[in-house]
Write a structure and sequence with these properties.
Length: 155
């Protein structure tokens, strides 16, 4: 699977959120979106990353960005994650990994020196017309949001 590049059309999707509602990327047309994929809710790195997005959400929304988090977790687990860490943006469930694969956020990766198949922590910035502005693969959970804010000129 080839990775997405700036200028590519962002693959459309409809996924279920933590409350069981359908959320489609198309419903965000006209707004910029930060779409991020993370391996598993309620794990240390994913919690750090989600809380960093939560803590910077007002700055992002103030610059016209919506934030969406995607994992393979069930809506029930996403709901516990949201409530436990007071997350204030949509968390979407992709248990079949179809959307992960459409964004090349699932595949071979290195884990403790071994090659395995798994979720590749990735972030995409999608413009108001549904085009990829930034495609960031293999990001680190810690410090990623701060670097993204700097790149986007959001303070």
């Amino acid at each position: 699977m080839s990775r997405l590049e700036p200028g590519d059309a962002a693959p459309d999707f409809t996924l279920t959120d933590a409350d069981g509602n359908d959320v489609s990327l198309e419903s965000f047309r006209g707004r910029k979106v930060v779409l991020y994929f993370y391996p598993a809710a309620m794990t240390p790195g994913c919690t750090k990353q989600a809380c960093d997005f939560r803590d910077n959400l007002s700055a992002l929304t103030g610059h016209g960005f919506a934030v969406l988090g995607v994992s393979k977790d069930t809506p029930a687990k996403l709901q516990r994650f949201r409530e436990h860490d007071a997350l204030t943006f949509p968390l979407l469930s992709d248990p079949g990994l179809d959307v992960h694969k459409a964004y090349s956020a699932y595949g071979e990766k290195q884990n403790y020196g071994k090659t395995i198949m798994g979720v590749i922590r990735s972030t995409f910035v999608i413009d108001a017309d549904g085009k990829i502005e930034k495609a960031l693969y293999n990001v680190k959970a810690t410090g990623h949001v701060a670097r993204l804010l700097k790149e986007l000129g959001v303070s």
